[in-house]
Amino acid sequence: xxxxxxxxxxxxxxxxxxxxxxxxxxxxxxxxxxxxxxxxxxxxxxxxxxxxxxxxxxxxxxxxxxxxxxxxxxxxxxxxxxxxxxxxxxxxxxxxxxxxxxxxxxxxxxxxxxxxxxxxxxxxxxxxxxxxxxxxxxxxxxxxxxxxxxxxxxxxxxxxxxxxxxxxxxxxxxxxxxxxxxxxxxxxxxxxxxxxxxxxxxxxxxxxxxxxxxxxxxxxxxxxxxxxxxxxxxxxxxxxxxxxxxxxxxxxxxxxxxxxxxxxxxxxxxxxxxxxxxxxxxxxxxxxxxxxxxxxxxxxxxxxxxxxxxxxxxxxxxxxxxxxxxxxxxxxxxxxxxxxxxxxxxxxxxxxxxxxxxxxxxxxxxxxxxxxxxxxxxxxxxxxxxxxxxxxxxxxxxxxxxxxxxxxxxxxxxxxxxxxxxxxxxxxxxxxxxxxxxxxxxxxxxxxxxxxxxxxxxxxxxxxxxxxxxxxxxxxxxxxxxxxxxxxxxxxxxxxxxxxxxxxxxxxxxxxxxxxxxxxxxxxxxxxxxxxxxxxxxxxxxxxxxxxxxxxxxxxxxxxxxxxxxxxxxxxxxxxxxxxxxxxxxxx
Length: 588
What we know:
The protein has 588 residues and is α/β, with parallel strands linked by helices. Helices cover 47% and strands 8% of the residues. It is built from 28 helices and 9 strands. The chain has a 9-stranded mixed beta sheet with strand order 1-8-9-7-6-2-3-5-4. Strand 4 (212-214), helix 11 and strand 5 (229-232) form a beta-alpha-beta unit. Helix 1 packs across helix 16 and helix 5 crosses helix 7 (151-163). The radius of gyration is 27 Å and the shape is elongated.
């Protein structure tokens, strides 16, 4: 979709049911049909922030629960905000005037369907473009491109948007101070990539280092690595023929672009996705949710919903906040999150504080090198030297990039360098007794944990086992942090003051406390996965053995890859760690 419409679904085929991935987009959606999605009862649970700092902490903690960097799904609102471009109806209205036809007549003739309207307008504009002297220069430059009755309109739309796409003087993103500040923060966000339905050049100016792929054909014929890239799924002004504009274009898109659909579904399944520039009630987004339900099934919907964020600008909001929406669909419930703010700066500042192990562009480069090596063993380009991870001299390497099987002892044998390679999941495996670590606890605390905590950002990391083994907790519960990085003290405080949402506490006391008293019982229940993890923290520890809690967490770790990467799981592991090893464990 060029500039986002309230009437036509984003043609992002996400359905993985028995029918085609694309078949679920066959139905036309109007605002008055939203009841088809069973959205009449939307429960809002305000969980959030009274200040920018609290918001930053909260959004980072949520994103830290995911192992992959977030993607941005950018709609027309961002182009309107920073470039003053029209929305889709406004664009079509402008060119209807150019064609000398009444927009209201076209709208009623198309029964409000904007792609059909665009098709009718293209046919009318075709005649004007070939005869009006106003377009004489354009005919000289582009007549070879205009090979059907739609291309003249696409050529002129591309020219119009190109002329207004430069983020410079005369655009709101430069002339207005608060928007200029947003743009500067926008450029520094840490993300996995961008998906956009817009034609314009805004994203290319925000992320000039991200290669842009237009439609399915470029993806098929390129070396796309799906990290640090931009996907312009509805075309770009650089290629007017790529624009998805008319009903014919949408039909072609839905029928043809199955590879693109599969790749985008992978992104939605593996990454948090933030929708920017769309209305929270836009049926485009609601359609995506319906197809996600179809793709994953009701039992896994909540997991995908935890990755979805709507970002809504509202000038009447005093401070940014996060609200949870439990959306009722035909195939289940999706607890989505809505971010409401009166400026995008707090969100962009928070995203700028994400700290991946290395920049996304470096990850993309390494991914491509590995792909080249695997695809062509005789590749002559040798920028990466591969050595066994326990080779002599490996301890002097600042970055170890390994492909293939290895033993944890290989990493741990590299002393401090090896310890800095330990991640949060490895710590959890040790705390739960799944794969014990053989390192000295003081060395772990001083060498490994600062890096673990940095990569986990605001996430939970179990730490009391190592403090206890290092004899740093005295009988009164005071922890000796002398000689340890400041992050250790912060982690101790976070785990001792563990917070569960009040709404979850009320639900636990109302529905669970008197009927389920053991970790195993919680796991066997039909509660949602996220709430199960909260219940494990809220259970009265006097009613079960700590080994029971450990066994429950081990079951999740070994059998549910998605849940074992969630914030709730790590919080429950930290709860077990504290109950088992902290002198102050009785203080909940």
